[in-house]
Predict the structure.
Amino acid sequence: MDAEHNDTPKLPEALGSTEYRARLTTKLNCLIAVLEVAIVKITKSMDTPGANEDRLTKVRGNLENTLSICHRAKQTLDRTQANKQTARRDSEGKLMTARDYVELTSIEEYRKFRNMAPITKNEVEMIDFDDLSRRLNDT
């Protein structure tokens, strides 16, 4: 299949598209429903006389693992949708980056550091690392 007929956009940019995420959520929901029905059928089949319980147990385990992965993927999609809807902005109205969310503990901390001037080379050269080490060990 060539690229122009492929309806799957490049990731991760595609996850920014509401339409693409809606299609993905629909597909995940359908897959979850199919897996749940299959697990119920496998479980019922295990009770029939002459059933190969070992094989059915393995199949059910694989289906349950796949279902678990689908649930995690759906939670991630739901969480990214919620984060996108409630995306935080800094004091200048700019969206925070993913790195900002990982490195900082709150929007207040982000704003505090955003408004601070960069550390200069002179400030770094003036650091007393022995004193800093002692102070860090005391806490």
